[in-house]
Amino acid sequence: MCGIVGAVARENIVPALVEGLRRLEYRGYDSCGVAVNSARGLERMRSIERVSHLDSRLRRARLESASGIAHTRWATHGAPAIRNAHPMLSGDALAVVHNGIIENYEALRDELSNAGYAFVSQTDTEVIAHLIHSLYDGDLFAAVREAVQRLRGAYAIAVVHEDTPHIIVGAREGSPLLIGAAEDGNFIASDALALTGRADRFLFLDDGDVCELTRDTIRVVTRNGEPVEREPQRISVENSAVELGSYRHYMQKEIFEQPEVVAATLRGVEALTPELFGDAAPATFDGIDSVQILACGTSYYAGLVAKYWLETIAKIKTDVEIASEYRYREPVTSRRALVVTISQSGETADTLAALKYAQSLGQTRTLTVCNVPSSAMVQLCGTRYLTRAGQEVGVASTKAFTAQLVALFMLAVTLGRERGHVTALRESQYLQQLHGLPQMLTSMLELEPQIVAWATRLAEKENALFLGRGLQYPVALEGALKLKEISYIHAEAYPAGELKHGPLALVTEAMPVIAIVPDDAMQEKMKSNIQEVRARGGQVYVLADKDAQIASEEGIHVIRMPAHYGPLSPVLYTVPLQLLAYHTACTRGADVDKPRNLAKSVTVE
Ligand code: AGP
C-alpha cells in the first residue's frame, strides 16, 4: 500500500529517497514518484513502472537535492496512471505526498475549483496540495496546520515548497508517520523500514500531530498547537535488504523459513508464564473474564484457531471478530476482557481503528501479537508479543501466520496455567510439543514434490472448495485465501458439516475439493463428507495424518502427513496448503509476490 519517505540533509538525498522507496516496494504499489527542491527549483519525476525504472530516470536526469519527498502509490481514487501518481503539485511550487483517504475531498474540490484551482488528477491528494497552497502566505508549517483542520478521513502527508527548500512539513491522522533522526539530517516516513541504515532514532507521530523538519531541527505540535517534547527513541530497525537466495519468490523463501521462525520464537522458552508477553502482562491478564480477538485476513484466521485453543485449553470465552466489522457496531463488551489484536504489519487501518474503538469503550486490557516492533499497533497496546518471523515481503502472509499461531498457542497455555486448567505436567507436555515443531515443519516441507503434482492439476481449474472441521476449519479458510489471492482461482472454505447445506450444489467433476483429515475425533465425519463429494463426481485432494484411515482411490488423492500433532496440528497443515497455493500460482504464471490489486500493509479502510 502507499508509502512515504522524505529527507532533508547536508548532502544529496535523492539516493536515500530511492532506497527508501525500494524498501517500501514490498507493501505493493502501482506508481511511484519523487519531488525535490534542486538548484533549478521544485522538480518532480513520476513513473507507473517499478522503482528501479524511476531510479534510472533520476540518474539520467542527474537530479540532486538536499531535501525532497517520495511516494509509492496504491490506487484508491483514480486509476494507476502518471497523472494520479504522487507527488501532487500546486502552483508548480508546492508538492504533497499522501497515504490514506480524504473523505470530504469532493466538497473541498468544488470549493477549490470555484476559487480557480484546476485539477489535473482524479485523486483526493490533489485537493490537499491546492488547499495548502490556498492557505500559504510564506509559512508552510502554518498553512499545513490550518489545512489539516479541514480534512476528514485518514492521512499521513509530507509537504515541500520551493520557497523554503530546507524544510519538510508532515502531518498525520489515522495513518502511520514517523520521523527518523540522524547526525547528518532528518527523515520522515510511513514505515521505519524505509529508513533502515539512514536514521537511528525515531519519533512516532500521534494522530493530530504536525511536524517540521530541517536538517538540524525537529518541531512537532499536537492538534491543539502544543509543542511535543518527546525524545526520539533508539529502535533497531531490521535490515530489510532481503536476499532471495536460491528461491524463485519471496513467498517460497518465507514458506521455507518457517522451521527457523518457529525455532526463533521458541528460543529460551522454558515455561509458559505471563512474563513471556511483557512486563505489563501479569497485571493485564489478572482477573480477565473473556478474550476478544480483533484482526483482518490471515491474522483473523490465526484468531479463529486461537479461539479453539483458548476455549479448550484455558477454558475462557473467546470471541473473534473481523476488525472492520467490530469498529462500526455496538458490541456488548466487558471491561475485564482481554482485547487481542493480531497483525503482521501492525499498521492495518481497520485493526488499529478497532483497537482504538475497544479502548474508547473502556477495554483497557490490550495485547497485540505483531511482527513489526516499530508499528503503530505496538505503540498503542499496553501489552505486546512480538513474533520473530523477520520481515515478510510476499503479500501472501505465510511465516507470519505460523509465528502468530505459535504465539497464540503459548497465550492459551499461559492463560490455562493462570486459571488453573493446565497442570505443570500438561504445560511441560505442551512445551515439548512446541519445541518439536521446527522438525515437524521441516518434514512438511519435504512434501513439496507431491504438492507440485496436485498444483499442476489445480492450476487448470477456476474454482476450488476447502473443507475442514474444528481446529482445521480456520486452516481451510487460510488455504482458500492463499489460493485465491495469488493464483486468482475462486476458492471457498467450509466447515465440512456445512457442505450439504448449500455448497454441495457446486460439486461436479470440475470442482476440486481439498479436505483436511487429521487422525482425530472428526476423522469419520470427514470421511463421510468426502464420500458425499465423490458421489457427485468431485475430485477430492486429501491431506491426512499418517495413521488416518483413508487411502487413495478413484477420485480421491491422499498425501500423508508425517504424524498426528494434536492441538498444534493446524501449524503443520498450513504448510502444504501454502505450498499448494504457491505452486498453483506459479503454474498459472501469476506474479506470486505482488498479486494484482493487493498490498502488503492495508493502511486504508
Ligand atoms: C494475507 O495473505 C493477506 N495478504 C491479508 O489477508 C493480511 O493478512 C491482512 O491484510 C491483515 O494484515 P496484518 O496481519 O498486517 O494486519
UniProtKB/TrEMBL annotation:
Alphabetically list the UniProt keywords.
Answer: Aminotransferase, Cytoplasm, Glutamine amidotransferase, Repeat, Transferase
Record localization: Cytoplasm
EC annotation from Swiss-Prot or TrEMBL: 2.6.1.16
Q: Which organism is it from?
A: Paraburkholderia susongensis
Tell me which Gene Ontology terms the entry assigns under biological process.
amino sugar biosynthetic process; carbohydrate metabolic process; fructose 6-phosphate metabolic process; protein N-linked glycosylation; UDP-N-acetylglucosamine metabolic process
PROSITE patterns reported in the protein's UniProt record? GATASE_TYPE_2 (PS51278), SIS (PS51464)
Q: Which GO terms describe its molecular function?
A: carbohydrate derivative binding; glutamine-fructose-6-phosphate transaminase (isomerizing) activity
Q: Which chemical reaction does it catalyze?
A: D-fructose 6-phosphate + L-glutamine = D-glucosamine 6-phosphate + L-glutamate
Lineage top rank: taxon: Bacteria
InterPro entries linked to this entry: GATase_2_dom, GFAT, GFAT_N, GlmS/AgaS_SIS, GlmS/FrlB_SIS, Ntn_hydrolases_N, SIS_dom, SIS_dom_sf
Chief place of localization: cytoplasm
Q: What is this protein called?
A: Glutamine--fructose-6-phosphate aminotransferase [isomerizing]
Subunit structure comment from the entry? Homodimer.
Annotated ranges, domain Glutamine amidotransferase type-2: 2-216
- Any GO CC annotation of this UniProt entry: cytosol
Q: Which SUPFAM superfamilies match?
A: N-terminal nucleophile aminohydrolases (Ntn hydrolases) (SSF56235), SIS domain (SSF53697)
Instruction: Please tell me which top-level EC class this enzyme sits in.
Output: transferase
